[in-house]
Design a protein that fits this description.
heterodimer; A: alpha/beta; 4-stranded antiparallel sheet; 10 strands; 32% helix; B: alpha+beta; 6-stranded mixed β-barrel; 12 helices; elongated
């Protein structure tokens, strides 16, 4: 653990997809550190490596080189089973494409992680209802994703990410399907969640209007972190 | 329980999958039932013998039609095996007549109060000549019933019988069977020969202890001893028929298993996206496998619940002259093999799917 408390630390992270002549270096030698209670945004053009970096920090992808240290533990060498447990217990993802389970209702989608952890109980159900209420989709709790609007699906996905009370909240384009007002509200509530519950929040976004709520802005281009500026 | 919830939400899709699985089980059960029924039609009556060994005359080439044991041979075998463990059985083909209707039957003569006496299901046991027991296969294919008078003709001589009971011993050589006492059978089989006629066609022996068969063959000239199952195989055409039936069953099971296995393989592949979501959220591969197993077992149970009654209804609905015999093992073999094939198809495909990084399956990188 860092002297400041819990943090996620990336050291010289590089990710290469493919091999030989077709090899693509998606992330190149990226180092960063985000402390608990901090909400950081990564911006950059499409294909700049933002999502790949996010996936490595969350244990969804393994780095080709470099290491990721979360809360003092190096997860770089972990096998898939260890990383699965890590994702289940310590990471909350909001994917760009929502990725809700299509045959489960909104509320059931929030309960997926407790279900796969074998920890589904009344307390978890109550938390799911509370999150749905906070996100303003309580009345859509029993609808299937196909019956929800893009914004409603996005809020369900955010609820799912917060469901297991994770240390790391990793968010990929959370406002791409929301209008400006609703997007602003969602990012503000994410930032609030990160700060009040002392989580590590990292958000990838194109939308610079949403940066008012972040503590720090990181820019990526061609797989490299260009600059770090306090916001 | 996410696996079962998915089934509930996709009732039509999983209902159709269950139907396909049920129809495949039905097909396998029917193939197996036809094979068993065909074999039973050829040898059911012999399979019902309460015996471990069947003694033929050696020069008959182990044929029920040609075998003839003399009184001396019978006595010598009884001496070796014990009277309470033996029973003579005679066989001949005959024709039953009632009014203008005729029916070919396999007529067996049995030694009364011996192990050869068939168990009477309804009516009473034979008390002497002029009485006959008919098999259920005969009463099903005709209108004959206990109390009816019938005539049997052999060598231009008519023999009148009263049906006094019904047995359930099965058919022989594709003919329904009927039973008379051995003396009556001898009179019909060897008319006018009196005491010079062979005593019986074969002798049944129960309890193959102390290498009894070999001792009989050594001690009794012109005797050949077979186990009951070998005696069945020795019936003309049975071995060939068994091989054909086994080949049909084998191909049926292999093709059925491949169809269902491939079907579930493709089905699971098509769910790669949903599996990737679970993996991305931290589900272990074992969790994914466990959910798939639950679904396959649930679908298989529904499939069996459709296929089994369908097979039973078919058995009842088909005419009695179609040799169809559904057994518990046919259901077990059909159900288990199809379920295993579905599981293998699903798990092999899931093995491929869980290896793919969920990020790429979700189209994120």
């Amino acid at each position: 653990m860092s002297p400041h408390g819990q943090e996620v630390l990336a050291q010289s992270l590089t990710k290469v997809f493919g091999s030989g002549e077709t090899a693509v270096e998606a992330v190149r030698d990226v180092s960063l550190s985000v402390r608990a209670g901090e909400f950081v945004a990564i911006v950059g053009p499409s294909g700049s490596g933002k999502t790949t970096l996010l996936a490595m920090l969350g244990g969804l992808l393994t780095a080709t080189r470099g290491r990721v240290v979360v809360d003092g533990t190096d997860i770089s060498g972990w096998n898939e089973a260890q990383r699965a447990l890590f994702r289940r217990e310590r990471v909350g993802f909001v994917f760009q494409g929502f990725n809700l389970v299509p045959y489960l209702t909104g509320e059931e989608n929030l309960l997926v992680i407790p279900a796969i952890s074998g920890k589904l109980d009344g307390e978890k159900r109550a938390r799911a209802r509370q999150l749905l209420r906070e996100l303003g989709v309580e009345n859509r709790a029993h609808r299937l994703p196909g019956e929800l609007s893009g914004g409603e699906r996005q809020r369900i996905a955010i609820g799912r990410a917060l469901m297991n009370d994770p240390l790391l909240v990793l968010v990929d384009e959370p406002t791409s399907n929301l209008d400006s007002e609703r997007g602003n509200e969602v990012v503000r509530s994410l930032a609030e969640e990160v700060k009040t519950r002392n989580k590590i929040g990292i958000m990838v976004t194109h939308d610079r209007r949403m940066l008012t709520h972040v503590d720090r802005l990181l820019e990526m281009a061609d797989g490299r972190l260009q600059s770090t500026e306090p916001h | 329980m996410l696996a079962l919830r998915e089934i509930r939400r996709k009732k039509v899709q999983f209902g159709l999958i269950s139907l396909i699985l049920g129809l495949m089980v039905y097909l396998l059960v029917m193939i197996s039932a036809l094979g068993t029924g065909l074999l039973s039609a050829m040898s059911g009556a012999v399979n019902s013998f309460d015996a471990d060994l069947v003694v033929f005359s050696a020069d008959s080439n182990d044929s029920f039609l040609r075998s003839e044991l003399t009184a001396e041979q019978r006595d010598a075998i009884v001496e070796l095996a014990g009277a309470d463990r033996t029973g003579g059985v005679g066989y001949m083909a005959a024709t039953v007549q009632q009014d203008l209707a005729t029916e070919d039957v396999a007529l067996f003569g049995f030694e009364p109060r011996s192990i050869a006496e068939p168990a009477v299901r309804s009516g009473r046991a034979l008390q002497g000549g002029g009485e006959i027991l008919i098999d259920r296969s005969l009463s099903r294919s005709t209108d004959l019933q206990v109390g009816d008078q019938i005539t049997m003709r052999n060598a231009l001589i008519d023999y009148d019988f009263t049906i006094v009971g019904e047995v359930d011993e099965g058919q022989f050589l594709g003919l329904p069977s009927a039973y008379v006492v051995l003396d009556q059978w001898r009179e019909m089989r060897y008319p006018g020969q009196g005491g010079g006629a062979p005593a019986t066609s074969v002798l049944l022996v129960r309890g193959d202890t102390g290498n009894l068969g070999a001792r009989i063959e050594a001690a009794v000239p012109n005797s050949s001893v077979l186990s009951r199952s070998d005696a069945i195989s020795a019936i003309g055409g049975v071995t060939e028929q068994e091989r054909v039936v086994m080949a049909i069953e084998f191909f049926g099971f292999v093709i059925g298993a491949l169809v269902i296995g491939s079907f579930f393989f493709v089905l699971t592949m098509q769910r790669a996206y949903e599996i990737a979501i679970f993996k991305a959220l931290g589900a272990s591969s074992w969790y994914v496998f466990g959910q798939l197993v639950r679904q396959v077992v649930a679908v298989a149970l529904v499939g069996l619940a459709l296929g089994v009654p369908l097979a039973l209804v078919t058995e009842t609905a088909l005419p009695s002259d179609i040799p169809l015999q559904i057994t518990g093992s046919a259901f077990l073999t059909g159900g288990v093999s199809i379920t295993i094939a579905a599981l293998l198809g699903s798990l092999l495909s899931a093995r491929q799917v869980v290896r793919v990084n969920p990020m790429s399956a979700l189209g994120q990188v």
